[in-house]
Write a structure and sequence with these properties.
Elements lengths: L4 H16 L13 H23 L7 H25 L1 H8 L11 H23 L2 H11 L5 H17 L12 H41 L1 E5 L2 E5 L4
Antiparallel strand pairs: 1-2
Helix pairs in contact: 1-7, 1-8, 2-3, 2-8, 3-5, 7-8
Length: 236
Amino acid sequence: MHVRASSWILLLGLCLGYILAAGVPASWGKHDGVLEGVQAVTLLSGGLVAVLAAYQQRGMAVGKIWWVAAMGWLSLLSHELAGHAGLVLPQAQVWLDAGQRLPSGWMPWPALAAAGAYAALLLAGLYWVLRYRLLSRVVVRWWHEAATPWGCVLVGMLALLLAAVAQGQLGLPMPQMPDATRSVMVAMTECWVYAALWWAQWLLLHHMQDWRLSSYLQTMHFSRSSLGERFERRSI
């Protein structure tokens, strides 16, 4: 398995960020903190790159994969909003400061809207994958051409694992540290999950640029008409 040098850089950054998170100001890991801002920018830029790629490859049937990617980025953003919407509401924050809790089974309307958008985007992405046969047209071709960015995938999975460890979900021993430090570590690793996804998309985008050029070269043919010779180009 070929591991790109950029994947090693991602891995090094993840390890350093996880270790140095203890020295980062605790405010960075809070809701609406610096790290959540970095996550939002990464998700929005990833969706923007996917939309631009879909527009650039609009003449290719396989270009539909970028619309699915854009839906994926927006669904991740909706997931983040659904998880934190209750805490950014002024009235909810007042309740929490007073030591009260939200009623059982009650969820603020922004959280409901974000959760609905998350589910809708996932279903729409699944429909496009099935409708345009993107698994056989794109994903299988990535596999055969060894284009899958496995390094980015592994870094993202490792970041998810480290976030689960910091949250104490796996029952693994962790050094005694304040909860604020743990929240910083979790937010830091989530940033690297999104960074790994962003870079994986960028590598695949550049790989599929060659598909567009090769498809034109392979399907270009001459045809005779009364007006002379003309080229006909067809894209996959």
